[in-house]
Structure of Endonuclease/exonuclease/phosphatase family protein:
Amino acid sequence: MTESNKKTLRIATYNIHKGMSAFNRRHVLPALKHALGGLTADLVFLQEVQGEHQARAQRHHDWPEHPQHAFLADDQLHHVYGPNAAYQHGHHGNALLSRHPISSWHNHDISLSKLERRGLLHSQVLLPGRDLPLHALCVHLNLRANDRRVQLAALADYVVAHIPADAPLVVAGDFNDWRQEACGFLREALDLREAFHSLHGRVAASFPARLPLLALDRIYLRGMHVEHAEAHSGKSWGQLSDHAPLTATVRLN
């Protein structure tokens, strides 16, 4: 939140591809951290965060000593991590970085098979001057359309059961929704509006990062008004991940 207006919040979502370049040739997390800092976001929703990978840690001299979410947050941001996929050398999942305290968090499993382990990372963020916490759900859905429909329904059920209808809510992440079915479903089920769609009448293309063609990443909102939304793509971002990050500046109601 800016000093001049504490009702304004800057939100980012980014699939960081486990800190590796688009074809897994290079470890790019230090450069990615610098680029993320340039976004000056208050809340950063991250997907494909490597909590641990012993083989890559041995292979790359600049592999961080701490888990990737802690490395990216440094001492500047609060952070939580929800591991979803575990394997021989480690695990990865979703994370949230926040300039404001995180009062509680929970990782809710929405996996449909052993091949694609997915979760909803639910955090409650304490904003200055606000009685109600902001609820933040970091999401990464399956590749198959039928699976995504089941997971969207599970997401809606979870929100109805666990988040008050009058609480501000952000649901952001990698929806893999190239068919663009999520916007209509989440609007009808939860009164969530996508940031780019609200401003421009369309969702933002974010994949591949160098020259985006598919709209896979989203920022859905409830209880706030969108002032600005931007997809950060091009050659420099294409060297850091296969996805482009999205940012939205919003004003809380």
About this structure: The chain has a mean pLDDT of 92.
